[in-house]
Task: inverse folding
């Protein structure tokens, strides 16, 4: 079942390793097949260097295992909340990458400070609110997903393809598993650039909105002209 999507999700998970975003068993990528309404996700606690495409677990949107002998990632309920909230998404990624997680632990959004940021994210990368004790004691992972949905309320998830979960780490997404992993890598690099920029001065100039608009829209707007046709 969904053998091709399993291969793609497996490869996207390995992309996190290749780009230095995860170690050991940290992090996960999933992919959503909207035709069947099923999600393919990394199994929980399985090391990347032994993981195979056939180890990927298939679940429905309620988290019931449809196919697979292993338990799905413990973050599965978070992924499912995002798929249910945002029909544009076909892939979700989660890492504990260094700079992005540092911002999450400091409860700081990643500010838009320049054109590199604007090429991929239209505005600041938000740090979502802290879960309440009741939310943490209850359906923790599901409530993490709900807090992410709340955190980007009023913004397009494709214009802001990632957020920080407070004290936890980054979640990113895209229309495919590959794009989710891609945005995880971009988000980490933007966090690194912001970290060093903020070291240079206590008073960083405001990034002009007209430059934000120009750089984002030339890649993602209806009249985009970056790249090849």
Result:
């Amino acid at each position: 079942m969904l053998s091709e999507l399993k291969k793609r999700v497996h490869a996207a998970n390995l992309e996190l390793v290749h780009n230095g975003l995860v170690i050991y068993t940290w992090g996960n990528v999933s992919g959503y097949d909207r035709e069947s309404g099923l999600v393919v996700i990394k199994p929980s606690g399985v090391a990347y260097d032994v993981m195979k495409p056939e180890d990927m677990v298939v679940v429905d949107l309620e988290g019931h295992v449809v196919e697979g002998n292993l338990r799905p990632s413990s973050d599965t309920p978070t992924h499912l909340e995002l798929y249910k909230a945002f029909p544009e998404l076909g892939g979700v990624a989660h890492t504990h990458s260094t700079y992005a997680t540092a911002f999450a632990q400091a409860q700081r959004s990643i500010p838009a400070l320049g054109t590199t940021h604007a090429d991929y994210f239209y505005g600041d990368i938000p740090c979502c609110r802290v879960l309440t004790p009741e939310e943490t004691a209850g359906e923790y992972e599901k409530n993490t997903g709900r807090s992410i949905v709340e955190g980007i309320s009023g913004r397009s998830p494709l214009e802001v393809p990632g957020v920080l979960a407070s004290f936890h780490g980054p979640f990113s997404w895209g229309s495919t598993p590959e794009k989710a992993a891609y945005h995880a890598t971009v988000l980490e690099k933007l966090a690194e650039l912001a970290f060093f920029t903020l070291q240079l001065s206590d008073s960083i100039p405001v990034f002009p909105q007209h430059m934000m608009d120009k750089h984002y829209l030339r890649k993602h707007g209806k009249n985009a002209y970056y790249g090849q046709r």
